[in-house]
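Section 4.2 – Deliverable D4.2 (structural model, holo form)

The reporting period included a commitment to supply a predicted holo structure for the target in complex with NA7. Inputs used:
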Amino acid sequence: MSTQNGNGAQPVHTVTDYDVVIIGAGIAGLYQLYRLRKSGLRARAFEAGGDIGGTWFWNRYPGARVDSQSHIYQYWFSQEIHRDWGWSERFCAQPELERYLHFIADRCQLWPDIQLNTRVCALRYEESARRWHVTLDDGEQLTTRFVVSCAGMLSAPLTDLFPGQGRFRGELYHTARWPQHAVTFSGKRVGVIGTGATGIQVIQTIAPLVEELKVFQRTPQYTIQMNNPPFTDADRRAHREQYWELKARVHSTFAGFDYDFLGSYHALSPSQRREIMEERWRDGSLAFWVGTFPEVLLDEQVNAEFTRFVRDKMRARIERPEVAAKLIPTSYGFGTRRVPLETHYLEAFNRNNVELVDIAQAPIQEITERGLRTTTREYDLDMLIFATGFDAATGALTRIDIQGRGGVTLKEKWSRDIRTALGLQIHGFPNLFTTAAPLAPSAAFCNMTTCLQQQVDWITDTILFLCEHHRQAIEPTAEKEQQWVEHHEQIANSTLLVKTDSWYLGTNVAGKQRRLLSYVGGVGAYRQVCDEVKASGYQGFVIS
Ligand code: NA7
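Output (structure tokens):
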């Protein structure tokens, strides 16, 4: 493993003018650097974290684990590299993902072009020179022709939420800023705020370790019980043998997995449907959600049947009916929010040291010196864990001061209307490319590695196209952007997703526009649109 991690020496860089500046060295950033370097371009990735990994560096909280199958959540750019890595279990935990990303950085010798502990603070486009001016948090200034944001979809955590946070005398952590030092739980009274996919992983992991656990839940979640067997050598051999097949397949399914919808619900008899539901449920993956029938996300009646099914499965595992009444959602349909996978999450509430506190009924008023006060009582705590989520898709970019043509900032633009062209570029911001930005599947509704690699490939091909044709800049027209927004809205509004408040729609952030952040026309269909734009010589984009 390379010594150039957060504690190691940083490679000295004297260059201040680049072909491409990459923001972030997570899954997208590493692959983007690999592709650009292989193409002979002068690229450098700036990473705010003390190590590479992005999501898998920051979210090192207890129980952090991927909800995509490990062997699908990976890179596909080299069969040789693929052959030399094997996953230990079906849904691997954060440390293994971190090791995998180090393995990639080592194998591809990416370290010399990654600068850790460095946040990109500002970007300003100089129209006459067709260059971006980049300001880093140490005050250093750079110039570059292209900027690719690989800053992440869920990387701007919501941390300052309650009055009095600074007063708390105990330990306070946000899951996405989890410290690298060991945190102990034994003998402690711990409060967890938030029951999204993250809170669920934390709760099920620490429930047996702590003295007392108070779970502050605002919205209950439908969950699927994870089936996470260890992989055997035979499994790993099979993954290697299936390399080409899997690599092609993930790009053509609805959500970038190896599984896909099985066909129309209406074409089957009730017993056939039930059989599929049971079979997919037993699979213990997100296939029950995005690998059964599309109607689950489109048709109220079908959704109601799935909702009943999941409620029954959940209820069977919760001992106390009054707890079940709070833990099982009633106000929205299954799958209209991100569905977390879990192991023993529901059973955690059967324990005597775990209490579910309904903060929809009695909201949190403030954090106190001793703990937390809701409208009805104060809870004494030694540790408070915020699993309160993120300003998704937009936050990573609006927290950077980005000034495009004419000094317009991205923050201003998106405060009026969150819009992009294919989630890849933004009108008014030439030569700025985005991964995991709004209105692409990579803004949530996708196995992230699939969608990020596809976007990085498109961006790289586009940059190379410009270079080969001796052109300086590319930017979508206002009309192209509008066309994409309309297409996105049309699809979004045909689904049930827009009926339920969640971070998918930005409703977890006060004042954020209510718009489905992710494109849900399907990963395969999206890829086709991107490929068509490329094949057309970038119709709808101004190349100068
Ligand atoms: P999520 O899914 O946004 O969950 C955040 C949780 O925190 C959720 O239960 C929120 O309740 C709760 N929350 C947020 N703000 C507050 C306030 N002010 N008061 C009370 N409760 C609050 O984030 P995660 O990190 O769990 O997961 C994000 C994604 O990462 C996940 O979907 C996967 O794709 C991976 P709410 O539901 O808003 O009522």
